Amino acid sequence: MSSAAILQTDWPGVPVRRGKVRDVYDLGDRLLIAATDRISAFDVVMANGIPDKGRILNALSLFWFEYFADRVNHHLLGTDPDCVPAPYREQFVGRTMICRKTDVVPIECVVRGYLAGSGWKEYQQSSRVCGVRLPAGLSQCDKLPQPIFTPATKAEQGHDENISFDRASELAGPGVLRELRDTSVALYRAAASYAAERGIIIADTKFEFGDAGPRGTGGPALILIDEALTPDSSRFWPADRYQPGRDQESYDKQFVRNYLEKLCADGRWNKQPPGPTLPPDVIEGTRARYIEAYERLTGRRF
Question: What's the pLDDT at 1?
Answer without folding.
Answer: 44
